[in-house]
Amino acid sequence: MNKFQLFGAVCLSAALLSGCGSSQGSQSSDSASQSDGSESASSSAPIDYSFALSPEKQLQVMADHVQDWQVADEWDWWGYTVADLDQDDRLELIVCQIQGTGSYTSNAIWQVNADGSGLSQVKTQDSCQPVFQPDDFQGTPTSAIRAYQNQSDGVYTYILTDSNKDGAAHYYESKRAVSLKDGAVKGFFLGYRNTEYDENGQEQVTYEDAQAQAITQADYDQIEQRYFGDLQRCTATLAWLDCVPGTQLAGNGLADQLAECWQSFTLAADS
To answer: Which of 31, 66, 81, 234 fits 147 for a cystine, CB–CB 3.0-4.6 Å?
Structure first.
């Protein structure tokens, strides 16, 4: 190699080394930018900031946006609670209303949005809505809900029961399984209990599975075992804010009230 070839090789090596150093510096800058909460322009996937928000900050955002979720029609029964149904550290604010002579139950579920600036309503399935509701209205309304954890994917499925009536002589109850995953609630019906009263007041109770096939009471009582019997059984507990008028919701104490609900929420494996 003559001296001109040697000189060219040295220059080329220096240029390559300089380029590598520039690339590493750019990557470090991008990493620092992402770590302090800003997205890199080259990032293809959005960053989910919600997991970085503490429960206290999430509860404050919920309180600050009470106008989004407070019940408009304050009659019969309504309540609010806070949970973490999918155990991802992103809390759910659950709104429940039970209305009418048929005792119809409806839920709306809210989460703090990705950048922490407000709330987003969780998508639900029209064909099988969630019906989280109290099962004890004495004192502070509470719920004790059976749940099952699929330990392979971490998904929790909640077994919910809803009771309605169609006139004075017909009562019906449904069992459904619902789960929250990837920001949406999905579910399916498990079975039904129907109670009829004849003109003499005699009661007749029948049970069906989701395919409208007759089953026994024992089958109905344990019907979730058909689907989840091999999963980890758990119990979830919820405590509800009970019929608080909207005029009393707004204020500095709302975050503390929501915090009491959150602190009362438990989800633990059965022994």
So the answer is: 234
